Amino acid sequence: MTSVLAGAPSMSSSAELRMKLDLAAPTLNRAMNALWKPAGLRERYLDYLEVMHAVIRASVPMMQDAALRCGELAADPVTPALAEYFAAHITEELHHDDWLLHDLAVAGRDPELVVSQLPPVAVARLVGPQYYWLRHHHPISLLGYIAVMEGNSPPPWLSGRLAAATGLPAEAFRTLHHHAVVDLHHSAEFDDFLDSLALTPGLRRAIAVSALSTVESFVDLLTRLTDPTRTRYSDDQLPQ
Fold it and tell me: What CA–CA distance (Å, rounded) separates 69 from 63?
């Protein structure tokens, strides 16, 4: 029997990825909404800035590694454009980890202590797979991570409400507000770029696997900030 979809145009790469991420969206949205509940919000926001610093300081080095890996795979038809994308994105993301340290300092936390402490295992579980896949499979996988992390920024109005609710100075929300605004543009730009690539089914799958892994690990990280029954650092109970 001939399918009624025979001859119909295939789904674009970005539409396919968004469709898969939509299935995971309710779980991620619940975790993000719990982050902003009123009880304990002030300290939880500062804890959030600390773990996001640990995440974001890996962004530029990870893209630099991915760009280098693209150079090693120069014969691959998608890697030249991918390397250009990473290079442009590196410029856009430079020093955002320093911004977070500034926000924390304004809010009263010690930036030197934040930098010196061991990052949570939950952060390593979020970021670590990307290093593996870009080195041992294909740097295209990093696009799945970027799609999730830039596609789920808080709304632009949230920073003002959080400042009012926590009593923290508005300057402590600078990085949060910046990403809420610019990541809207980045998401549209990302979809256009993804659809410009001639992706094989295997490369599409690599992006999707990376994206869904990112959702799972990001939910775990957020839950450790909001659920009192779980430890913030999953190695807290290791024997000393």
Answer: 10
